[in-house]
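Below is a complete specimen:
___
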Amino acid sequence: MATGPCAALLDRVGGDHEIFIELCDAFLDDAPRRLESIRAALVAGDARTVQREAHAYKGSAGAFDALDVVAVARQLEQLAAAGDLTDAHHLWKLLDAHSGTLFAAVRAGKERR
């Protein structure tokens, strides 16, 4: 029985384990690249890229009902949309920490299949 973020995704795919595994794999492949893109854009002061990547990452994490990740990604997206990256580095650290927890939960949930 899947729990936590994996239960949310498994429910979304109607219990189809094959699709569940494919989506977990896609997330685990794509999400670290998106996080790196957000980090690099923050270093470069590129608010437009931060906004775009945070928005996309928020959607991906949302599939797992990862509310902590979604909330921080939303805050980053909103700051970047306003062109104000002043507090963004603090938010980046939170996003990175929450994402690590999410990645571990997705890997563990995938292995239980």
The chain has one domain: 4-111. The mean pLDDT is 93. DSSP finds five helices and no strands in the chain. The two ends are 8 Å apart (CA to CA).
